[in-house]
Design goal:
This protein has 220 residues and is mostly beta strands.
Length: 220
Amino acid sequence: MAQIGAPRNDLAIGFNGGITLDKVEFNPTIKQSFKLGKTFGGTIRYTCEKYFNMICALQAEVNYTELGWKELIETSNDTYERTINYIQVPLLARLGFGREVKGMQGYILLGPQIGFYLSDSDKRSGDWSFTTLNQRPNRVIQQYDLPIQNTFDYGITGGAGVEFSSAVGHFMLDARYNFALSDIFHNSKTDPFGRSAHGAIAVKLTYLFDLVKTKGADRK
């Protein structure tokens, strides 16, 4: 009776899908535009407490995600784009504000994310001659022939979204940013890049349905 929070023991599962917009932070710098990709997978959410008006939950996902980079080459008609495919697993703390049932709720997400490299491919067009390669800024061209050297990716993900709850489930739309703490290429003093990390925006739609709901909970 003295507790401020109202306990919850809610479990919901479902699926998600959306798009990614990625750039790889290179040092030395490579000029880029956003690389468009797709992401989709499964979601599970455990809600543990309602504290005043704040709904506290943990959310985990297993997703197939396309990342990579798309170069903005201004010295010739060359184009280059590399797609890097991952299985990503974010584990997120989720704080919601609003209605639990039959209404809208805003929420924020924050937590660690790991990724496992699956494969990659590239697309290139233009002349791709010695002359055009020699015109690259600072003659940075080592990235074209380098395989992905670090197959384990990790970083921090945060974002915000809105949820609509109804009798048939929960519908969510959110935007996230993933800041990678790992590099895709080796980064020792003898390697060509001191930094080569993903910085990806993801916009996702998620649908969840309830498996377990706390009995007798006073919900609004």
